[in-house]
Amino acid sequence: MKRKLLSILILCSLAFTLVSCEKASYKIGIFLYDESDTFISSFSEEITTRLSDSYDISIYDAKKSQSIQNKQIIEMLENEKPSVILVNIVDRLSSLALIQKANKYNTPIIFFNREPVSSSSIDNKNIYYVGTNPVQEGINQGIMAEKLMNNPKNINKLIDKNNDNKLQCVFIQGESTHQDAERRTYSCIRYLQNMGYDLDILAMENADWNRSKGEKTMENIYTTYGNKIEFVFSNNDDMALGAIDYLANNNLLQASASKVLTPFPIVGVDGTKNGLSYIERKLLYGTTINDTAKQVSAIELVIQLINKQTTRDAVNDKFNFYKDSNYIYISGSAITVD
Ligand code: BGC
Ligand code: CA
Question: CA-to-CA distance for 75 and 272, rounded, in angstroms?
């Protein structure tokens, strides 16, 4: 009996040292493009909560500068020999140079949220991408508008204010070089057109994911089109909230008994804390969750795959690599005032 207890104790302490050794030796560098970005700061929190127990992680903020990020990455590759780096690249066009650097050190890269632009990365087995599914998010925005409009041949008059059976709409877009901005806008438009709606796109302007730029953009657009606007599609929640800031600061928000917000419904993407509270207050009509929890789970599994603790098939069962590539796109659920 005594001996049994002793061997259990020995086993436990052995397991304990093994785990702590592994943590110390499994160093991960995490490189953010801009920690002041609302969505990225919540992504970074999620990564820290989920990965810091099992891995030795260090997080760096590039503050939107690719040259700062390059320095941070090269310094870490040279001095700390990380087992893997997670890169939220500032400038997607710099991905090929970065891939070549990391290859020199034999360090695998998991890009996240900002997809690398380089066809060669897809063939490289040391390069992965994990991000949201922007095509689904665009379709969800289209579905939100569709539900409010009802019939394409006879659009709900609460929306179609000028009664021309067309949707006069506006797109506030993220960074012009960001894959999510482009795909959200495109898939939303294509969805609505496929469903038979006639879109009259009054304006499409970039506000770089940023709330105060969203406000400025709404000012430009509203001073040109005013009440002609029937719907606003924003590529993320922060810019949508900026648009609402403009309307609120200029007394343009009217209380409405119906769920259709006036002067026009606005939809976003991300499901940030603020975004969700604006939906509760019926100021934002809807959003789609940019699911950081699931994206971090996918990242964790890819780390295990790189570490040979799991197989590609097992990862595929849970998250699906896109076609035969190393890319994973995670869908999130839609939330509206309803
Ligand atoms: C999010 C934006 C965020 C951007 C940063 C997008 O997927 O929707 O809110 O600013 O990623 O790269
Ligand atoms: Ca109309």
Answer: 33
